[in-house]
Design goal:
CATH topology: OB fold (Dihydrolipoamide Acetyltransferase, E2P)
Number of domains: 1
Number of strands: 6
Oligomer: single chain
Radius of gyration: 15 Å
Distance between the termini: 31 Å
Structural class: alpha/beta
């Protein structure tokens, strides 16, 4: 029973639980990268549209959050704004050229503290589903 209490406490502290009045948007609602970076909460299931960046690009905050294979999804309207994605790259996104057309990514918002070292708020990234 103690393990259950610890897990519940960790989930509550990490933002994984939402009060009913502020439940996340339905996962079939398409968002832009800027919206997720500004409003995404840990555990939110989201669909995001953007451009997959080539391997050498640096638009998202910090380095890859989970693996060296993580990739960046740039806002379709502002390619200087991007979020890290951990999971499979889209089929049309090559390592040396990125994607030519916007892609939709279904994922779960993750949060870490790397942005705080740069004087910013928590860094958001996506776990691709």
């Amino acid at each position: 029973m103690i393990g259950g209490i610890v897990v519940a406490g960790v989930l509550a502290c990490s933002g994984m639980r939402h009060p009913p009045s502020t439940a996340p948007a339905a996962p079939d609602t398409l968002s832009g990268v800027r919206t997720i970076l500004a409003e995404g909460r840990a555990g939110d299931t989201v669909r995001v549209r953007g451009l997959c960046l080539r391997l050498g690009s640096r638009a998202a905050v910090g380095g890859p959050p989970v693996t060296r294979s993580d990739w960046q999804l740039a806002d379709a309207a502002d390619s200087a704004t991007a979020i890290w994605v951990t999971g499979d790259r889209p089929p049309d996104c090559s390592y040396d050229a990125g994607s030519k057309e916007p892609v939709d990514v279904h994922g779960i918002v993750g949060v870490d503290t790397i942005g705080m070292a740069a004087g910013k708020s928590l860094r958001r990234f996506l776990w691709r589903l």
